[in-house]
């Protein structure tokens, strides 16, 4: 009997591949290369992706045998869940696999932005010893606004508390009492923008959140504010952020995610006040191992027609 075909369209951890084992015909393709990806879908039963593969209606239409799409990570914005559901395809993800890594990376970018770590590093390696140019700011006593106090936002709050910051958050879907338990004061978006010294974004990408922080919002912030985005590109409008930093209305930013990825030239890269990483939030050995094993288990269960619990 033919083994079910599992198409792995982005890198999957060795541990994830080991969970799949020998019961499946595991194939690999480059999900970001449509000319390679679409024909590879013809006879697949399961598809495993990260964030670089667009699993849209066109892709689903190319996969008549597809039964499950597994997203080795959190955000499902690259999967057309509605089109998949219409086609009878189950969509699973690994919602807790990389949240610790994403939260830790957020803290890294907050500190890097506050203390000019990346800029001073490049300058010194380039032969420049510049102490006063890279004078930073302390976190102690500062107000940190978390936009989206979900799994990652909460881990960020926990990790920042020992720095002596005041934590506020904008998340209209969360009960104020739940936030208060975590030592976080829920506020409106306007208050968050007005009060914050640091703003960190942990929202899903959706019609409501795309461009949520645009030109108008960046006119409402303190000029000393630093913005961090380890969620999704486009939630902070890049053009508006560029202008705000250029015009001295925003002090700096730490950006891990971009509207179009991969990207190697963005106006933001010209600005010394901006520290960037190439979507590294989930890029740790631990997170990738968890994501890989969790989705591989879900794929096995789904293809066996069994109940797939939340990972
Ligand atoms: P989550 O679902 O646990 O939390 C999201 C929070 O945002 C929820 O509390 C929700 O109430 C709130 N929210 C949703 N829509 C909102 C809106 N319109 N206005 C205000 N609040 C809103 O998700 P999470 O696990 O914390 O992950 C957040 C996002 O981080 C993911 O969707 C993903 O895109 C991104 N992410 C990025 C990386 C990375 O590598 N950079 C890694 C993991 C996750
Ligand atoms: C996620 O949503 O899980 C992250 O963006 C990580 C990833 O896709 O690699």
UniProtKB/TrEMBL annotation:
It catalyses: (R)-2-hydroxyglutarate + NAD(+) = 2-oxoglutarate + NADH + H(+); (2R)-3-phosphoglycerate + NAD(+) = 3-phosphooxypyruvate + NADH + H(+). Its EC number is 1.1.1.95. Signal peptide: none annotated. Pathway: Amino-acid biosynthesis; L-serine biosynthesis; L-serine from 3-phospho-D-glycerate: step 1/3. Keywords: Amino-acid biosynthesis, NAD, Oxidoreductase, Serine biosynthesis. Coiled coil: none annotated. It comes from the Bacteria. Catalyzes the reversible oxidation of 3-phospho-D-glycerate to 3-phosphonooxypyruvate, the first step of the phosphorylated L-serine biosynthesis pathway. Also catalyzes the reversible oxidation of 2-hydroxyglutarate to 2-oxoglutarate. Belongs to the D-isomer specific 2-hydroxyacid dehydrogenase family. This is D-3-phosphoglycerate dehydrogenase. It comes from Streptosporangium fragile. The gene is serA_1.
């Amino acid at each position: 009997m033919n083994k079910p075909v599992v198409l792995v369209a982005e890198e999957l951890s060795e541990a994830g591949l080991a969970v799949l084992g020998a019961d499946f015909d595991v194939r690999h393709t480059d999900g970001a290369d449509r000319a390679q990806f679409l024909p590879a879908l013809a006879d697949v039963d399961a598809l495993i992706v990260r964030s670089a593969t667009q699993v849209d209606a066109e892709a689903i239409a190319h996969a008549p045998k597809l039964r499950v799409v597994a997203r080795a990570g959190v955000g499902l914005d690259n999967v057309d869940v509605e089109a998949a559901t219409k086609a009878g395809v189950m969509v699973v993800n690994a919602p807790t696999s990389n949240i610790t890594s994403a939260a830790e990376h957020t803290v890294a970018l907050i500190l890097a932005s506050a203390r000019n770590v990346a800029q001073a590093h490049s300058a010194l390696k380039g032969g420049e010893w510049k102490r006063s140019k890279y004078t930073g700011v302390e976190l102690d006593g500062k107000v940190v606004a978390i936009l989206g106090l979900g799994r990652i936002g909460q881990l960020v709050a926990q990790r920042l508390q020992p720095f002596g910051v005041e934590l506020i958050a904008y998340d209209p879907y969360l009960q104020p009492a739940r936030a208060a338990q975590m030592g976080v004061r829920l506020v409106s978006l306007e208050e968050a923008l007005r009060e914050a010294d640091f703003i960190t974004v942990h929202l899903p990408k959706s019609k409501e959140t795309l461009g949520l922080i645009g030109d108008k919002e960046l006119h409402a912030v303190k000029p000393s504010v630093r913005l961090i985005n380890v969620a999704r590109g486009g939630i902070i409008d890049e053009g508006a952020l560029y202008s705000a930093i250029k015009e001295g209305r925003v002090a700096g930013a730490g950006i891990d995610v971009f509207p179009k990825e991969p990207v190697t030239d963005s106006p933001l890269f010209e600005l010394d006040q901006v520290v960037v990483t190439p979507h590294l939030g989930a890029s740790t050995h631990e997170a990738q191992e968890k994501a890989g094993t969790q989705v591989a288990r879900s794929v096995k269960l789904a293809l066996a027609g069994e109940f797939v619990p939340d990972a």
